[in-house]
Amino acid sequence: MSNNSDRPPFFKSWKSMYIAVMVVFILLVLFFHLFTQYFS
Amino acid sequence: MIVNPLDWFVLISTLLFIVVYGVFKSRKNKNMEDYLLGGKSMKWGTIGLSVMATQASAITFLSTPGQAFESGLGFVQNYFGLPLALIIVCAVFIPIYYKLKVYTAYEFLESRFDLKTRILGAFLFLLQRGLAAGITIYAPAIILSTMLGWDLSLTILLVGVLVIVYTVSGGATAVSLTQKYQMTIILFGMVLAFTIIINYLSEYMSFTDALVVGGKLGKLQAVDFDFNFEKRYTFWSGLLGGCFLALSYFGTDQSQVARYLTGASIGESRMGMMFNAVLKIPMQFFILLTGVLVFVFFQFVQPPLNFNPQAEQVIVEKGYAKELSEITEQFEAVHKDKKNQIEKFVTAYHQEDAQAAEVEAKKMMALNNETQDLRNEAKSLLVQADEGSSTKDSDYVFLTFIINYLPTGVIGLLLAVILSAAMSSTASELNALGSTTMVDFYKRLFENKEKTNPTNDLKMSRIFTLIWGVVAIVFAFMAHLAENLIELVNIIGSLFYGTILGIFLVAFFLKQVKGKAVFIAAIITQIVIFSIEVLVRAGAFKLSYLMYNVIGCLLVMLLAFFIQLLDKKTVES
């Protein structure tokens, strides 16, 4: 349902932007997991 | 406690700057669109900070570090559903709101269903947000008045009246523009506090050592993949419950919808939301980590037995001074032993002797449990002295640190951070409550359409915002301290959000369902959710309040679907 006529900065489409956001989230969870493992 | 004149200067000048700036920059409002949607002119940076400031209330900055002090980083998982929820809002909700050119989210419900569903959605919003607005003002007021000796009524009035001044006069433009500066001050203040704690800790140990100590004492478990839904914070409840909560909050709560509807274009609105999808979790993690560092700091500096200064006063007044003095003596002795033990552990850790470090860590943990037991003993004494007293003191931890250990000037800045946060979220709430009352009730139900004119609409919008400001102040005066303030706001939200989200998801995805079916489903669901809350409070079973969002939403969708099916069969027969 994304509107491609209104392109986001840095990305070709909103779909790529959403994928990038989810990748950042997964990396964050991975970081938290390693953080927890290392310090606990 | 008497605050230094320099702190007063920093605090008052910061707050006055925000109010004057808000009033000045928004003085050109000509009509209802300017007032309620900021003339649809905002860029994504302003929208992003405004959305962030709306969600981050004073409670966030008082309760969150205290929560980390008490139970570690686990609370961050509550926000794990947020990125996915914001993506759904950007892909599904925002395009529809823009297409229909709505002022409020609930207008959409009438175009999809009928008037009664729109009014039900708007009513549920007014009910829960009206209550929450009172808590948003009350929460920091009660803590500031207890810690600083300020008069509670005056503190409530100070926050309430300042917000009313610029929100009523400047509307959405004033709210968004002031939030941009409020959020900048908040982030600067928190980074400064974090840096100062690290600097203080460097007297005893490095940053990494502080993390190792915090970790060994059980404060650094950020992720828990346990499938037990009775646990309050796990990865799964955060991802599932948090997603439904965030979807409902950002997609259907007018205090957030109004923020991104001020966007100059659909792209600006979406970017503002993506800004939050990326930065919100790291920000919460950072605030929680600040709380953990405050915890480590209090391993070296003697903390009070109870961080709420009124607790000791109550115990002494009720004649338990001797018992308190005995516990305090033991607490101070164990604290000294623990401090020495932590130093021994760090030395062993540095010598890379894993076995010795483990032995020292176990002794350190045992002493930590001992201090925790003594704190609990003092809490039991407080209940013995006065049954009605709240034993939870985590909301007072961060403020105790601020006013006792931060340098002059920085205290004023941090107090400005807390009050700015209270003002920014209250401003959004009043703006949204005013616009919903104006658009969904007054203009839709009561206004004579032939006599409508822009000047009158603007005047009425201001009047409704003012009325909600007064109502919020009245609620703040009536509020009572809950176990944990941040949780109370989330629990109130979760009681209603599932139902509201369910109505919207039926609207988007179950095209065959009509207004009558979704209306009945929503009423039944709301009764079921209230009943579950009563049973949980009565101890019949345990359930994380985040799950109310999931249950409420799915129940509305299921019931609406089957009621529609039943209705169709009845008509056919």
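qc> Helices of chain A lie at 14-39.
qc> done
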